[in-house]
Design brief:
heterodimer; A: 331 residues; mainly beta; Methylamine Dehydrogenase, Chain H; 1% helix; B: 92 residues; alpha+beta; five-stranded mixed beta sheet; 3 helices; globular
Chain lengths: 331, 92
């Protein structure tokens, strides 16, 4: 184990850029002194240096916005690095964080004045890029919902058809949903799975329509959602109580579907039975190996791993601080 | 003679600055820009993209914290002034 790095600051997401040789790592570090910044590592995380530039709004912007936190980082196949930030906005860098450009038509969207924050703030926490058509981008914003662009980010439309917003007078509004996380498998690029503030959903048309698939789960609330990297119909969620944000009945459990959400089974062998912690939205990862490893990091500083398709779990780390993000990077 | 600037250790470490600088500057904004030339990224760490001083940064001019002033960055400086740049003590 290496580190700690960025001591005293929150790292909400870290990713690796795969390519020749060792991957470059990028971390979104939310410092309380000098703002949210990107750090880079070229030696598998042993040493880090601050990037030349960071996602920032233009100086004169219509809402006087300034970036408070970096929530999500994502690469596309052309090595463009996308960053989702708080207050909700999307940026892209084409030069490894030497410079950044904002998606102004999203960031200063005509409805922006109506956008409401979720409990964690008004954050753009999820970026999904279609693996077949990179000009198709979907983002998740709490508590605005899903927005999508099919032209590389010029025009953005709400894509919340079928997603509930139980906390609003109108249960299926155009926007205002509190989406928590979206994931997909690149072999089925148009199929998205979504953990919402209320309910788990699937879309077969890259977000244009959604169907609820999690009605048999013990709670419709949770944060992360993960899709098996080789089995596109195998999906993992971590239900928690909406109020206390701990596992149902205090028993830590993942739930797994292997048929795209038609049926679910509970996975808890090896997981602690009395548990009053949470798993945050970036704290689930899969490693992409043949016998795929699944990893979850908990807010109590424990990390669990399964290498048998979520049949059983082993604790692989403990006594860490609150875990925001788990990433698997092949070095 | 110039303006005397004292920089807190957290910034000294991050930007490899000298903890004490003497600068020929006319405003706080000039002062930050001047340090930016020595330490890339320093300006971004002191104020955000709209020009607001970051919430946990304190700038004292001759002992007065100017962070809450709307025109803080335009604060005039003269030879012999003392400027302290400190992060807030936060967390406890």
């Amino acid at each position: 184990m290496h580190g700690p790095f960025f001591e005293g600051f929150d790292t909400y997401d870290m990713i690796g850029e795969e390519g020749k040789g060792r991957p470059s790592l990028y971390a979104g570090v939310n410092t309380w002194t000098w703002g949210p910044v990107i750090y880079k590592s070229k030696d598998s995380g042993r040493t880090w240096r601050k990037a030349r530039n960071h996602p920032r709004f233009p100086k004169k912007n219509p809402y006087q916005l300034s970036v408070k936190r970096i929530w999500n980082l994502q690469f596309d196949k052309d090595h463009r690095l996308y960053a989702g930030v708080e207050p909700a906005a999307l940026f892209v860098s084409e030069d490894g964080s030497d410079s950044w450009k904002g998606f102004d038509s999203l960031n200063f969207h005509q409805t922006r004045k109506e956008w409401q924050p979720g409990n964690g703030g008004l954050c753009l926490h999820t970026i999904v890029i279609n693996s077949n058509q990179q000009n198709k981008i979907r983002v998740g914003i709490s508590a605005v919902g899903v927005l999508g662009s099919d032209d590389g980010g010029k025009i953005w439309k709400f894509m919340n058809k079928g997603i509930r917003a139980d906390f609003l007078p109108e249960k299926y509004p155009e926007y205002g949903q509190c989406v928590h996380k979206i994931d997909h498998n690149s072999s089925k690029p148009d199929v998205l799975y979504l953990q919402n503030h209320g309910g788990v959903y699937v879309s077969g048309d890259f977000g244009k329509n959604w169907n609820e698939i999690g009605k048999s789960l013990p709670s419709d609330f949770g944060f992360p959602i993960g899709v098996h990297p080789h089995k596109p119909d195998e999906v993992y969620v971590v239900p928690v109580e909406a109020g206390g944000r701990y596992p149902p009945n205090g028993v830590f459990q993942l739930w797994v579907t292997q048929d795209g959400g038609r049926s679910w089974f509970k996975s808890s062998e090896g997981l602690p039975q009395r548990s009053y912690f949470n798993v945050l939205r970036e704290a689930m990862a899969t490693d992409g190996e043949e016998q795929c490893g699944i990893y979850v990091g908990c807010t109590n500083g424990q990390v669990f791993c399964s290498t048998d398709g979520a049949k059983s779990w082993q604790k692989i780390a403990e006594n860490l601080p609150r875990i925001f993000s788990v990433s698997c990077i092949k070095t | 003679m110039g303006v005397e600037v004292f920089v807190a250790s957290v910034f000294v470490r991050e930007f490899r600055l000298s903890p004490r600088l003497t600068l020929e500057v006319r405003t706080v904004k000039d002062l930050v820009s001047n340090i930016e030339k020595m330490a890339s990224g320093f300006k971004d760490s002191i104020y955000d993209e709209t020009g607001r001083i970051r919430p946990y940064v304190n700038l004292f001019v001759n002992g007065t914290n100017i962070r809450s002033r709307e025109d803080a960055l335009d604060t005039l400086l003269k030879d012999g002034d003392l400027v302290h740049i400190f992060p807030s003590v936060a967390g406890g």
